[in-house]
Amino acid sequence: MGGYKIEIITHNAKKDGAENYYDIVVDTLRSEGNDTPLFLIAPGNRGVAAFRRAIVHFAPGRPIYSLIPPRVSGKGHISSINNLANCFADAVDSRACMGKAHIAGYSIGGITAYETARVLAERGSSVSTLTIIDTLGPRWSLFGLLTMGFIYLFPDLFALITKITGDQRLVELAHDDRLISQLKLASKYTAGAWNGKLHMIRCPSPTWTDPVLVGEWHKLARQVITKVTPGNHSTIFLEPKIKELVATLDGILVENSK
User: Please, what is the angle between helix 81-93 and helix 177-186, to 10°?
Assistant: First the structure.
């Protein structure tokens, strides 16, 4: 795990000293600093790695944590996005600086970040910023889940596509248990309103797709502020584009910490 501190938070009765399938995980990327902490919600295993790559590009002085969803959901304690958001909100509240926190989520993790911010606000905690990074509207979650299921059912077809294109992402995503877990919860999620600013960092896309792909966010949040970063859904967390993504996110944090 390198220099990262991993903390397993168990939400079911059975404790055996190791991670259970229903546990959420807090990955402390940076513990030092006096600025308002940032909590990044990962979409799955690839998101965990992406956040670790990003940490070196953030300005110093801010504690940063990655909140990681369970490997299995839909049973027991975590049976909805709201359940998961409450678990994440507990983790945020226990680490927030004077009750303040920045919340951000990447991909499907943006949906959980959105609900986590809503839960925190309902508790009276201060959400300094809420940012979603290349996250489609909640209604697209079912489509994502069906796509992953299709890849899983026809592995030979996608193995051939992977061999031809050299792109490992599709096959990896279909076997990402944390991603599938979160997609299952999000596919049944009905989002409530957010009475604040929603910062949205997006990859370039044709303007005509906005009402279809992200128009839902504009109906849910009081104000949506969009910034575009170079790259696509995967390359924004790879060098060299990751530097620009982090600079954009850092700018949002600093601007809204005054």
Answer: 110
Nearest to 108 by CA among 41, 172, 28: 41
The first and second tokens of residue 76, run together, are: 């027991």
- CA-based diameter of the chain, in Å? 53
- Which residues lie closer than 8 Å to 80 by C-beta, 6 or more apart? 185, 188, 189
pLDDT of residue 7: 77
C-alpha 209: how far from chain center: 22
User: Which pair of tokens denotes residue 186?
Assistant: 């999000």
With a cut of 70, say whether residue 14 has pLDDT above it.
no
Rounded Cα distance, 106 and 114, in Å: 11
Q: Name residue, tokens 């911010």.
A: 117
Q: Could you tell me the domains of the chain?
A: 5-138+178-255 (3.40.50.1820)
DSSP 82-148: HHHHHHHHHHHHTT-BTTEEEEEEETTHHHHHHHHHHHHHHHT-EEEEEEEES---GGGHHHHHHHH
The overall pTM is greater than 0.90? no
